[in-house]
Design goal:
Length: 421
């Protein structure tokens, strides 16, 4: 670990615009992936007819490894710059990218938005920018990528910058909080060194922009909250839930409770990076073992917290939501799937309480009959199965969600109040 301040960084953008390649490039240029590993992947990639895609290939391999559950070390990719120690809170190659982003973006302090110069603003560009804004990303660094494909054309770059700026205005993301850089993740232009191919650009490189990000706000002093990602059985140890600590600390000997499964016990061991540790803190990815807990007692979507301050389980909750895209209108009774931390639960929108004016934040209409794309509203939600979730004002890390239906993110929001079961 390093003494530098820590930044959680999300890398977002439309599929194939170069997120994995950019992350691979960043890891490579900051010396975080040894040359021989890259070389090995380059050879393998060439054998499989994917020659030249080694950076993306590194990321895909890491994602695959994680999905197969080969290792319980689920540490995210890390690199450091002169100013900061960065953790990439998302695995860009992952097939459930948006779902991850709900948890990832809410943990991320800042984000790099990758937009391919030859494709411009695409559906997932919109979706990710919308989520970033709703979930509270502070600053966006926009990498206008694949500049090599458009012959480093300044005009094309300016067009993309203008389209992305329009998108920011639509979702009311303050454009002062964004910077734009023409890059090629593939060729390495303007990533760590100013490129000779873009003489018309005299701004920062991507690494310089990362260095100039503001220092993130310190974490809250909330109690332990650890959403469970997976539950493994490891020989010699027993049941090992794994996940990332969002808030608080976990120590061996602590009495913990898993909600909504409603079981608990004493933490016997905690493992991080294949080593046993006596305690772990926010941002740490851990596997741990709790006395008396079997594999079928707990599941993905449970949240682990202190036995004396257990995670809340909602009978109903109120939330502020923003509707991003819905083919028709949303009325009371609508029951899409809510994605909150690692949980996915069908929830009924029981009532639409207020429609808000998104610009001013004032109430525009009480008890409207429906809401539609672009609307912000306060709604009352009833989970169809037990769901652990927290008010965003108390534990922001556990207080946001995305609403998905028909394979798309329909809305995203923040929890205002929880009525406990
Ligand atoms: P992701 O889906 O956003 O993670 O995109 P990938 O990183 O997997 O990249 C998709 C494809 O675009 C791969 O074939 C990459 O090699 C290629 N690619 C990524 N960045 C660049 C770039 O800057 N220039 C060119 N020419 N190709 C790129």
């Amino acid at each position: 670990m390093s003494d530098k301040p820590h930044q959680n960084l999300a890398v977002i953008g439309h599929v194939d615009h170069g997120k994995s390649t950019m992350v691979g490039r960043l890891l490579f240029e900051t010396g975080s992936v040894p040359e021989h590993v890259i070389e090995q992947h380059r050879e393998e990639a060439e054998e499989k007819g994917k020659g030249g895609f080694e950076f993306a290939y590194v990321m895909d391999n890491l994602a695959e490894e994680r999905e197969r559950g080969v290792t319980i070390d689920i540490a995210h990719q890390e690199f450091d710059t002169d100013e900061y120690y960065f953790t990439i809170v998302d695995c860009p190659g992952h097939r459930d990218f948006v779902k991850n982003m709900i948890t990832g973006a809410s943990q991320a302090d800042n984000a790099v938005l990758v937009v391919a110069a030859d494709d411009g603003v695409a559906p997932q560009t919109r979706e990710h920018v919308f989520l970033a804004r709703t979930l509270g990303i502070d600053e966006l660094i926009v990498a206008v990528n694949k500049m090599d494909v458009v012959d480093y054309s300044e005009d094309t770059y300016k067009q993309v910058v203008s389209d992305v700026t329009d998108l920011f205005k639509q979702v009311q993301f303050n454009t002062d909080d964004a910077s734009f850089i023409p890059t090629s993740a593939f060729e390495g232009d303007n990533v760590s060194e100013a490129s000779e191919n873009t003489p018309w650009y005299d701004g920062e490189t991507l690494l310089e922009a990362l260095n100039s990000l503001p220092v993130p706000e310190p974490p809250t002093d909330a109690p332990l909250r650890l959403p469970i990602q997976d539950v493994y059985t490891i020989s010699g140890i027993g049941t090992v839930p794994v996940g990332r600590i969002e808030t608080g600390t976990m120590n061996t000997g602590d009495n913990v409770s898993f909600q909504p499964s409603d079981v608990g016990g004493e933490v016997k061991t905690i493992e991080m990076h294949h080593e046993e540790v006596p305690s772990a803190e926010p941002g740490d990815n851990v596997g741990f073992n709790v006395r008396g807990i079997g594999k079928d007692d707990i599941r993905r979507g449970d949240v682990c917290g202190p036995a004396d301050e257990p995670p809340s389980v909602a009978e109903t909750f109120t939330a502020q939501v923003v509707v991003m895209q819905h083919p028709s209108v949303i009325t009371a009774g609508y029951t899409p799937v809510f994605h909150a931390h690692t949980a996915q639960v069908a929830c009924t929108i029981e009532s639409i309480d207020k429609k808000m004016d998104p610009a001013s934040g004032e109430v525009a209409e009480e008890n409207p009959d429906f809401i539609q794309s672009g609307d912000a509203a306060v709604v009352t939600v009833r989970p169809q199965k037990p769901l652990s979730i927290e008010p965003s004002s108390e534990i922001p890390e556990l207080g946001s969600f995305a609403v998905r239906d028909m394979g798309q993110t329909i809305a995203a929001g923040k929890v205002l109040d929880v009525n406990e079961a």
